[in-house]
Amino acid sequence: MKILVLNAGSSSHKACLFDLSRLAESNQTPNSIWRAALDWTHAEGMVELTATNQEGGKIKAALPITDRAEGIAAMLETLVQGQTQVLRALSEIDVVGHRVVHGGREYVDSVRVNDEVKDAIRRLIPLAPVHNPANLHGLETMERILGHIPQVAVFDTAFHARMAEAASTYPGPYEWLEKGIRRYGFHGISHQYVAQRAAVMMGRDIASLRILTCHLGNGCSLAAVKDGISIDTTMGFTPLDGLMMGSRSGSVDPGILIYLMRQEGYGVDALDTLLNKASGLKGISGISNDMRLVVEAMEAGHKQATLAIDMFIHRLRQEMGAMMASLGGLDAIVFTAGIGENSPLVWQRACHPFEFLGVKLREDELGRAKDDQDIAAADSAVRVLVIHTQEEWAIAQACLSILQPVA
Predict the structure, then answer these.
(1) What's the predicted TM-score (pTM) here?
(2) What is the CB neighbour count within 10 angstroms for residue 326?
(3) Is residue 314 included in any domain, yes or no?
(4) 379: CB partners within 8 A, 6+ apart
(5) pLDDT tens-digit map of 120-133
(6) CA nearest to 212, candidates 16, 62, 385
(7) Which of 156, 241, 331, 372 is catalytic?
(8) Alpha-carbon gap, residue 353 to 355, rounded angstroms
(9) Is the same domain home to 271 and 143?
(10) How many domains does one find in the chain?
């Protein structure tokens, strides 16, 4: 089976192809045989196309295309021609899996796409005005290009959709809940994948585990995964809630926003920009939303950078403690995504306060590894795992489970 995975965004499109006929029996996540991307921010009136295949073929070109559908068509052409060709024809693709950011309360699992699903994605646009339109457009473009092959929507909110109402309801008026204002949570594809991968690494049934998953990238969120289900998470109605992030503030006193509107004359758009693009590590350090650059500045004695790192760790520890309380115990902590997979400083500082729970890291030098790794000491009461998130493979697995369900 050949599975194409598409992540269609407002300013970029990423795609990859998995050929399951090439897979060997292994616990390791397989590599895609082709991957490509479109960057619409490259230059006005242009799109930058990059593509590679497993044999080392590469394409990089700036194309005079502004129409998103034309760009996707050009990207798919690299599957069947040129240096990155891996298929004789696009008709060899068996199914397309799509990352869809918002599935509301309706979708707690991935689904095969039909008109009803498309209508739901469209109806939920007000809850994800940047992402859902792009996701829907990508889905409809694939229909036009590839015809009526099966397509599967994998929702980033679905993994959190089974949270109890006490965890998902905001303490405003009850009418909020009736209007769909609730905690949805995000990064669900990543949280679900790394929790399942953690169970495999531990040789345990996920249904018996309490796992704290830490997705730490430019966007950051935690999830409390109990018996394989997300029972609590830090992101909420939008991805702005919860942890301090690269350029997002995370949770702040809502009274601050009222103050800024009344006293400083802020409007909706200015607040949106302030909280999403000018806060977090970038806002406090005054340097960057990139953790690596902020750490470099901290090590050079930069005061604001030091404060930014200290705040990031403080907020991370707070929310880790909250997730542990929701779990009622802990078997494993998982770090994933850009910061989570690459920062020993974060692993060490985040875990240190939980030594009283028996969390102990190895004493040898910790660093990024090519493979997923267990960085806990042999006698640690809690396993601490660093897992490379594989959202694309998780989407491919969802496609496989829907088209070939286990009897």
Answers:
(1) 0.90
(2) 18
(3) yes
(4) 360
(5) 999 988 888 878 99
(6) 385
(7) 156
(8) 6
(9) no
(10) 2
